[in-house]
Predict the 3D structure of the following.
Amino acid sequence: MEAPFSRLYRLWVLALFLFVATFGFVDRIIVQILVQPIKAELHVSDAQMGLLGGLTFAVLYVLLSIPIARLAERKSRIAIASIGTALWSVATAACGVASGFGQLLLARIGVGIGEAAGAPATVSIIADYFAPLRRASAMAIYGLAVPLGAFLGGAVGGLIALHWGWRAAFLCAGLPGLALAALQWATVREPPRGYYDPAGAAEAPPPFSAVLRRFQARPSLIQFLVGATLSTIAGYGANYFVAAYLARRFGLDYAQAGLVIGLVSSVPAALSIAAGGFLADWAGKRNARWYALIPGLGAALTAPLYVCAFQADTWIVATAFLTLTAMCQYAYIPAAAAVTQNMMEPRMRASASAVTGLIYTLLGQGLGPLIVGALSDRFGLQTALTLCALLYLWSAAHLALASRTLGRDLQSAPFTPPAQRALHLR
């Protein structure tokens, strides 16, 4: 089947979305890096900082993501994604001019509004630009925003904060997004919905209840979602306080801690995401269960590596184990996105992405930092981070359970082309 857009243009669209998501993740990393200086200036606890970095962002995301996603099933996804990018960019910059903790909380809520608008529409667009058996690879490239954003937010954001203050770091993170929003609006064309799916699959948006029933009818998807959510809780919870941990335990300043986090979360995390997506597509062509087993293996390895990092006696040893951890812990991201999109009809995909994003954001980013912060106030940060790392073992168990019926659930979708059904049955 001839693609509606050239390969070069599709790569441009994917690269642009990658840049947008990168600066979106820079914002999240900067909050983590700046826990110590914000806490010192505003005189707040670890639990309050966990609230700032998690639940405040999640509140509006949870309330708005599904209604906006339903709108994206009917209207221009490009317009919605562009407006969302502009909104979170302005809100991130507003963090830099907040005069108190209350205003900072409101600005973080504004970031959640913008991302609630942009993320589901973006994932749906990518799914319509790439064929089903290439979607995990495309999602892996899109997922590189995590390590790229972590490096820029950690290394560059930490240096900016050291020389010009934490407020300047937020301003530098937010303003580039406005230019990227304009590029999205001007250069990205709306792809045909369901182009790579059988005729008639994209005729009309089904009711939201049909999207929820699709989740319910796919046992492997539920298990995959639970496993990915547990990894998200552990990842956000631990990563939010790693810079503060390095500063408190080993005496690193926040620029040094930011550089460590940036380096650990760049190339190692990029390898984890790329391997998770490309290996899943490669092995999934032979047996669909590998879409779950590969991220499950990554989660199983992450738990002991994280524990070793938080029990290390020097920052060098801790950094070495954090590097190994980052090479394993992100493998679930592209596989989870691809499996969800492949089990949904074209006009279900933005809504399905909103459902998963809502769960990941509310439980992962919303509760993860808050839980670790509260445990830290009670038992100390080292103990809190160690307990959080053990959640990855629980995640691995659910991903292993997902692999048992994943092939059957993928091939049973009525809109799956016959050639792909044969692959999933292997």
Observations:
- The chain has one domain: 16-188+206-425.
- The longest helix spans residues 219-250.
